[in-house]
Each structure stands twice: as C-alpha cells, then as structure tokens.
Amino acid sequence: TNPIPPVTNPTSAEILAKIQPLLTPANRINPNTPLYDSQDHTGKIYVYKLPGTNPVALVFQSSGAVDCDGQATTQCNINTDPWYQSETSFTQSDGKYLNAATLPWYVLPSAGSSYFDYTKNNIGGGQLGLVMYGNNMNYGVFGDENGDRQSIGELSYAMASSLGINPDPHYGGVSCCGVTFIVFTGSENIVSPIENHDQAVTIGNTAMNKLWTQLGG
C-alpha cells in the first residue's frame, strides 16, 4: 500500500487556490505546441512555469491515465494490461525496471519531444513531483516516458491508487483535466535511489515548503 504522505499544510485546495491564477497564457512554456491528455487524447494541455519560483516549478493539469509498465506483478502484467511493456525508461538502483504496483510515479513525453522536452527544462529521471486529485495528493518521481510525444497526463498504478483513482490499467484512470501535476525542477529535487518513496516524501516536503513561501503562502 502507498499511504498519502504527510502533506497536510498546505492542503490541496490551498495549493490550487495559489497556483490556479498563475496558469495564464503568459506563463505557458509550450504556447505553440499544446499536448493532449493521455487518457482520451483530447484537449489542449499546456505546461506552465510558476513565476518567482527558484528552482522553477512547472505545472500542468491533465488526465490520470494508468501506467502499468515495468516489473511484472499481480496488478501489472501482459494479462491485466493490453499495452503492458516490461521496461520503464528509468531503472532502480539494482538495475531492475521500476515496479508500477508499489512506486508512485508520473510520466512525461519522451526526450526530444517537440511539444515538451523535459531535457531542456532541468528535469531528469527521478525528478520529484507532486500529483493532486480531489482532496488527495502524493509525491512521486518521474519514472517513465511516454512514447507518444504529444501526450501527457499518466501515472503509475501505485500513484493512481494512492490518489483514489481506479488503478486498473485497462479500465481505470480518469479523464482530463482534474489531475494537477507540479514538477520541482533542479538537481536538488532528484530522488535517489529512484525507488525510495520515503526519500521522495522527505525531499517533497522541503520543496513544497519552499514553493509555498515563494508563492506568498
């Protein structure tokens, strides 16, 4: 199980109240190359740079499609997921691929995407993120790339489950655009080893406190 970490102050509603007014066309970093959501392949999804944040915090609001790739488990395998792949873009410290059933992570378009290229935005494997859905939120890592370079809004089985989203890789997930993703850029916000969720929570609480102060919270 992946309990909701101790992110209680500020609440998800308070965070959204602070960042929503900042999600304006002027703060889009991909104004001419909108993405679509990973669940239904609809909508125009933009990535926003929160002004005044250092290191930069990036935000996008999209779907919560379920990624079940990586290590084969009872929850994630070729029988439960028609799109199952045994590999993830990044690996654990022991060289094994990530475990979607136990590790909360989020997904970004593959490196080199002309719509949003994470490599040009100070983001690497294991980059800390905060994912919010309704009243629930959880820290996670950038754990896998989406081969569809125009699609964004996907999270691991464990992340979906922790947020109260149906984690079934075939029939689960949620449509656009009630899931909010905050990516904390910079080397200080890389979780290592990538599979250590406790480390993600520790780094996350520090990053969130800094962001909250920078936003005038």
How much beta, percentage-wise?
15-25%
**Shape annotation:** globular
What is the CA-based Rg, rounded?
16 Å
Tell me about the largest β-sheet.
Answer: 6 strands, mixed, barrel
Low-confidence stretches: 1-7
Helix content: 10-25%
The ordered string of helix (H) and strand (E) elements is HEEEEEEEEHEH
- Give the strand line-up of the largest sheet: 3-8-4-6-5-9
Distance between the termini: 31 Å
Chain-averaged pLDDT: 94
The DSSP helix count reads 3
Which class do the helix and strand fractions yield? alpha/beta
Overall strand count:
9
Tell me briefly what this model is:
Mean pLDDT is 94; it is low at 1-7. Strands 3-8-4-6-5-9 form a six-stranded mixed β-barrel.
Key terms:
15% helix; alpha/beta; 217 residues; globular; 3 helices; two-stranded parallel ribbon
Give a description of the structure.
- The chain has 217 residues and is of the alpha/beta class.
- Helix content is 15%, strand content 24%.
- It has helices spanning 12-19, 157-162, 197-214; strands at 36-37, 48-49, 57-67, 105-109, 128-133, 136-146, 151-152, 154-156, 174-184.
- The strands form two sheets. A six-stranded mixed barrel has the order 3-8-4-6-5-9. It has a two-stranded parallel ribbon with strand order 1-7.
Write the layout of secondary structure elements.
Blueprint: H1 12-19, E1 36-37, E2 48-49, E3 57-67, E4 105-109, E5 128-133, E6 136-146, E7 151-152, E8 154-156, H2 157-162, E9 174-184, H3 197-214
Parallel strand pairs: 1-7, 3-8, 4-6
Antiparallel strand pairs: 2-3, 3-9, 4-8, 5-6, 5-9
